[in-house]
Design a protein that fits this description.
The structure is a single chain. By secondary structure, the protein is mostly helical. The chain is about 85% helix and about 0% strand. Helix 7 (about 145-170) runs antiparallel to helix 8 (about 175-220).
């Protein structure tokens, strides 16, 4: 448990350093370097408190290295999002623990997150456009894309696994399991895809209307919008002069100013609206199918009790993998998260198998 505190700081130091090495904007890269140095000092302080040798601090964990690999393959925006989410999660956990033990909330519990924003806000080399660029990266990614992929696969695996076990309980694992499984897989994947398409499309249409109104306000009264944006930054704690300078610089580019205004006033991220509804539907269908095919695959080659056993083993393995992958974002113990997912998945499957068995006996 003691080493976990040090490991968390080492991981953060490592990831911030990787962010700085892969950031093209030198001013923003400098912010990441400062954060890496701060996390390194935290790790050394923890090590001294625990009587650990500072010169031999432990290496980055598998979680940090995996996140770095994801950043190299896809984008380091994913790393920033996951890192910030983890920092927020840790601060929330500290606050909840203090509330439970009726300890005073001092405001220092979220210092790691505050330090990053403080550097961004006070560094004179960070322009308004760069500040907005960083905030866009943080808000637009936040680890959500990879998390959505993991959870999409989990939905497919768990729902089809439960269905397959229910039909197996009623039929003993004959060929009807495969037919029911394929039907359930297609129905679930199509439902997920259609739901995703409707969600993305309706959100786009709603936000596009609000953005059009904001653009009209920007063209009719640019001075008022500049003042409004500056006041938003002042409300965030940025000094008034710097806030107005940031707003003035942003307003030089009407397109960028419009993007910042709709984000600050309406909570809309323009980057998210660029996504295709059809593309979102396709990936939702694909991820559900990938997860759902795991418990179904054994029934293509086997039947009866043997197929049921292999399906349970393969599904449990898939559930463990998903649970372990989720720890990339939660920072929890890999084995605990993996086996927790397996435990609840097997309970769901056992319930549906039992219900199916009762129905099968009643019909026979």
């Amino acid at each position: 448990m003691k080493n976990k505190s040090v490991q968390t700081e080492i991981d953060a130091c490592y990831l911030y350093r990787k962010l700085s090495e892969n950031e093209s904007d030198e001013a923003v890269a400098n912010v990441f370097r400062q954060m890496s140095e701060i996390e390194q000092s935290h790790a050394e302080a923890f090590a001294r408190r625990m009587n650990l040798p500072v010169e031999n601090l432990i290496q980055p964990s598998w979680r940090a290295k995996t996140l770095n690999l994801i950043g190299r393959i896809f984008s380091y925006d994913y790393v920033l999002g996951a890192l910030m989410d983890t920092e927020k999660g840790l601060s929330n956990a500290i606050i909840k623990t203090k509330e439970k033990n009726k300890l005073e909330i001092t405001g220092t519990e979220s210092n790691h997150v505050k330090i990053l924003w403080s550097i961004l806000e006070k560094d004179k080399n960070i322009s308004g456009a760069q500040h907005a660029k960083f905030e866009k990266k943080h808000r637009s990614v936040g680890g959500n894309a990879i998390r959505a992929a993991v959870l999409g696969g989990n939905d497919g695996l768990l729902s089809v696994f439960s269905l397959v076990m229910g039909v197996s309980g009623a039929t003993g694992g004959n060929h009807s399991v495969m037919l029911a499984g394929i039907a359930g897989l297609l129905a679930g994947a199509l439902s997920m895809a259609l739901g995703e398409w409707i969600s993305v499309k309706s959100s786009q249409e709603l936000y596009e209307n609000q953005m059009a109104i904001e653009m009209e306000e920007l063209e009719v009264n640019p001075e008022g919008e500049l003042r409004e944006l500056a006041l938003i930054y002042v409300a965030k704690g940025i000094p008034e002069v710097q806030a107005f300078n940031m707003a003035t610089e942003i307003m030089k580019d009407k397109t960028h100013a419009h993007e910042v205004l709709v984000k600050e006033e309406l909570g809309i991220n323009v980057e998210e609206l660029k996504g295709s509804a059809m593309e979102a539907a396709f990936y939702s269908f694909l991820l559900f199918t990938v997860g759902g095919i795991i418990p179904l695959l054994p029934f293509i080659f086997l039947n009866g009790f043997q197929a049921i056993v292999v399906s349970i083993i393969s599904s449990a393995s898939g559930l463990f993998f998903i649970g372990a992958t989720i720890t990339l974002f939660t920072g929890k113990n890999l084995w605990f998260s993996g086996f927790r997912m397996v435990f609840f998945g097997l309970i769901a499957a056992a319930i549906t198998y039992g219900i199916g068995n009762l129905i099968g006996v009643a019909i026979n």
